[in-house]
Amino acid sequence: MTAPLDTLIAVHTTVANHDDARHLAREVITAGLAACAQLEPIESVYIWKGELVEEPEFRITFKTTRQHLQPLMEMVRGAHPYEIPAITATPQQDPDPDYLSWVIGQTRPREGRGPTPADAVTDRQSTP
Predict the structure, then answer these.
(1) Does residue 3 or residue 70 have the better pLDDT?
(2) What is the pTM for the complete model shown?
(3) CA-derived radius of gyration, the chain
């Protein structure tokens, strides 16, 4: 059975450096395919072309919905600097309803996007 189109999905990939991570994140976010991207430094150890490789990388985690999963993965694959990029997607269990609504609102065409989480915090802080 296929999950609903509004299921929250975390999409992960890695790139060699912070500049590549930021560039890819901006492309996906401005295209409206994810609500946010988290960039974090990691260390990877793997075999590549018969050689042991140990090097720093940046992991990018995109927050999106199932509706935007395939276009997001295609964009990442097409813009990715690696020959064989690792791109995985994981459905998120029981997301906060307000957060899920925000993700859904941000992954619409630009003119239809809603407020950011910072707006919600500001609204809550200004409420007596």
Answers:
(1) 70
(2) 0.82
(3) 16
